[in-house]
Amino acid sequence: MADIGGFDSTRNVPVTDPSPSPSLGVIFRLFFRIGLFSFGGGLSGWVYREVVVLRNWLDEDEFMSGLAMSQILPGVNITNLSIYVGQKLRGRRGATAAFFGLLSGPFFAVIAIAAVYGALKTLPFADAAMDGIAAAAIGLLLIVIGRGVRRATSRPEALIALFATFAGVGLLHWSLLLVAFIVGTLSVAAAWVRGAAHEG
Q1: How far is CA 131 from CA 33, 127, 147, 154, in A?
Q2: Per-residue model confidence (pLDDT) at position 90
Q3: Residue 76: phi, psi to the nearest 5?
Q4: Cα separation, 82 vs 44, whole angstroms
Q5: Is the pLDDT of residue 197 over 50?
Q6: What is the pLDDT of residues 26-64, one digit of tens each?
Q7: pLDDT at 17 over 60
Q8: What is the structure's pLDDT at 180?
Q9: Does position 87 have pLDDT exceeding 60, yes or no?
Q10: What residues form DSSP beta bridges with 14?
């Protein structure tokens, strides 16, 4: 990155210094709140808003890299993402704090809601409330998708990887593991060639 007087000349955007690493307690409380008060697919969007937009703990490139890794690794995407963010902030202890913060709230909330679910589903506004929650989750997810597409359109190789993955999984119905392996390998090779060209 070429940083000239607080300005990144390679991307034409101001350079902002990341905020100091938060304490383990702050990481735990943030992910506890995210796990307790966000829903479904909107979790990654909420993490992006809290970690990148509001607190500047990670920059957008770091977050998007972690999101990509969380999608292709085994396990639940949001759990993988929380571990990645925690590890980037405070190492293994940060990853542990983020992991338990994310899961402890929903664990007890699901037990409590299950106990009263029979009564809640009979309320006249229950269906409307669930529709609203689903719409909010989709909206948060679209924010992250929009950011990813914007970054992909600025890099031809990323745009090719995006369409290749969509075609392989969505249209040809190939195995996700096979597509991720092929596209990931080619993406790493393209990034290596691009880096070597810049260094030369």
Answers
A1: 21, 6, 25, 35
A2: 95
A3: -75, 135
A4: 9
A5: yes
A6: 999 999 999 887 765 568 888 999 999 999 999 988 998
A7: no
A8: 81
A9: yes
A10: 7
Please name the residue that has the structure tokens 């940083």: 3
Supply 3's token pair: 């940083």
What pairs with residue 3 in β-bridges?
8
23 φ, ψ (degrees, to nearest 5): -75, 165
Answer for the pair 84, 96: CB distance below 8 angstroms, yes or no.
no
**Three-class secondary structure assignment of the chain:** CCECCCEECCCCEECCCCCCCCCHHHHHHHHHHHHHHCCHHHHHHHHHHHHHHHCCCCCHHHHHHHHHHHHHCCCCHHHHHHHHHHHHHHHHHHHHHHHHHHHHHHHHHHHHHHHHHHHHCCCCCHHHHHHHHHHHHHHHHHHHHHHHHHHHHCCHHHHHHHHHHHHHHHHCCCCHHHHHHHHHHHHHHHHHHHHHHHHC
Which amino acid appears at position 48 of this protein?
Answer: Y
Contacts of 77 (CB under 8 A, 6+ apart): 44, 70, 71
Distance separating alpha carbons of residues 122 and 184, to the nearest angstrom: 48
Chain centroid to Cα 85, Å, comes to 9
pTM of this prediction exceeds 0.70 = no
Chain centre distance of CA 198 = 29
Tokens, residue 86: 């925690």
